[in-house]
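Below is a filled-in request sheet from our internal design queue. Each sheet records the structural input a requester submitted and the sequence that came back. We keep these sheets so that new team members can see what a complete request looks like end to end.

REQUESTER: design group, bay 2
PRIORITY: normal
MODE: inverse folding
CHAIN LENGTH: 440
BACKBONE (tokenized):
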């Protein structure tokens, strides 16, 4: 599927880039052609509209055009009412062959182009207005049309060269567009490929982790069926194993659902101003009996001040319970767990520290991956599916916080979490909201 998508994206990206090259080249050629022809047409129209007969100081009658524009080589044709050529004014040579074409185009008032003998001409026609009396004397009939023409072969040649250059550039651009399209497609598919690989790994890990408890439940159930005449008391061991694995399976499914909803932005965090110091103190009191049962010491280090953050109390409790549960699992008897909550600048720092087995340094970059269980966890066995720290990181991210874990084998593990603290204004608004909620 990824390869097919890569090919499709390459084709579309190449087509778009190639289309941009064509549009750019076409626009460049069109602009150059319009500019050249418009300048020539403007000059021709100006010349034919401002053609006057003037007398020099010597008495000679000449045709003059009052223009400051640079002169071009032009030829002027005069036609009588019988469409006979009366005369022509030129600078270099008579252009007799063109006259036969111009005769048919006397009624064309707009600028037009003539292709003749591998040369290109541009001309303009106008009805005679009586401004050239000396020319009238050359004909027995009244003048009807005046035409002015200039050669544009050089301009057309350079436009043709420009068109070929643009065509060559577009051809090279087509090749570059394929290369660029492929590179863009590969770059765009990098996160998709990562997500696909992550999903495949997730499915494989989930299948593996779900298979173990299901196999245990099925095996114990088959043992029960072998002795249908026994009482519950006699089968208490397989029943307890089934209940334990069912609970483990249920916790795993709940964790997977939570993370899946989080990935699809379906899981909504209901945030409001909460006192993190109060949550930690209350949680410490509730787990004190468990700590005593496991012969562990809990040291509480909470700042004597209101540490208010914007968060979801239930999710924060879930996060702390996961961290404390991990600390208790991997701390030997008579060990110590330190739970801290202090303010540092504009953030609240929460720490969970134990002096247990610790985590090898090579495993630290992977501890927040889903279903990841380090060597120490595998050796102890039966301690979850490796989703706890993934849930912790998700909860921290939802609260715009950060989490960092440090550890040393044989010395213990420290998890440090930072949450942005509420400022005075936000604290006051939070208190007002609580008071309003109570009143309602």
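RETURNED SEQUENCE:
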């Amino acid at each position: 599927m990824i390869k097919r998508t890569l090919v499709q994206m390459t084709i579309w990206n190449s087509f778009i880039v190639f289309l941009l090259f064509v549009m750019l080249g076409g626009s460049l050629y069109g602009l150059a052609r319009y500019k050249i022809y418009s300048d020539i047409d403007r000059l021709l129209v100006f010349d034919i509209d401002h053609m006057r007969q003037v007398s020099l100081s010597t008495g000679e009658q000449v045709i003059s055009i009052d223009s400051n524009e640079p002169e071009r080589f032009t030829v002027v044709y005069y036609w009588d009412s019988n469409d006979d050529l009366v005369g022509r004014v030129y600078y270099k040579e008579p252009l007799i062959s063109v006259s036969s074409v111009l005769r048919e185009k006397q009624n064309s008032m707009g600028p037009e182009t003539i292709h003749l003998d591998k040369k290109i001409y541009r001309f303009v026609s106008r009805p005679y207005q009586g401004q050239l009396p000396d020319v009238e004397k050359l004909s027995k009939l009244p003048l009807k049309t005046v035409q002015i023409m200039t050669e544009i072969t050089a301009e057309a040649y350079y436009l043709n060269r420009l068109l070929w250059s643009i065509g060559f550039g577009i051809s090279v651009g087509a090749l570059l567009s394929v290369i660029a399209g492929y590179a863009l497609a590969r770059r765009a598919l990098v996160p998709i490929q990562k997500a696909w690989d992550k999903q495949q790994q997730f499915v494989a890990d989930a299948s593996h982790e779900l298979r173990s408890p299901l196999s245990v439940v099925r095996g114990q159930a088959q043992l029960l069926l072998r002795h249908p005449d026994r009482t519950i008391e006699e089968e208490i061991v397989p029943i307890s194993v089934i209940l334990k694995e069912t609970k483990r399976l249920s916790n795993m499914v709940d964790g997977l659902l939570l993370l899946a909803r989080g990935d699809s932005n379906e899981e909504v965090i209901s945030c409001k101003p909460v006192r993190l110091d109060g949550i930690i103190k209350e949680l410490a009191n509730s787990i004190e009996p468990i700590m005593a049962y496991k012969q562990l010491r809990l040291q509480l280090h909470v700042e004597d001040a209101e540490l208010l953050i914007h968060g979801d109390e239930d999710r924060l409790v879930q996060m702390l319970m996961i961290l404390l549960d991990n600390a208790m699992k991997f701390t030997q008897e008579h060990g110590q767990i330190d739970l801290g909550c202090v303010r540092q600048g504009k953030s609240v720092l929460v720490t969970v520290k134990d002096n247990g087995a610790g985590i090898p340094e090579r495993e630290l970059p992977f501890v927040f991956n889903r279903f990841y269980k380090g060597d120490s966890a595998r050796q102890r066995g039966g301690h979850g599916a490796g989703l706890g720290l993934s849930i912790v990181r998700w909860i921290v991210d939802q609260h715009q916080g950060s989490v960092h874990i440090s550890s040393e084998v044989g010395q213990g593990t420290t998890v440090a979490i930072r949450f942005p603290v509420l400022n005075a204004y936000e604290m006051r608004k939070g208190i007002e909201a609580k008071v309003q909620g109570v009143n309602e």
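SHEET NOTES:
- The mean pLDDT is 78.
- DSSP finds ten helices and 14 strands in the chain.
FILED BY: M.R.
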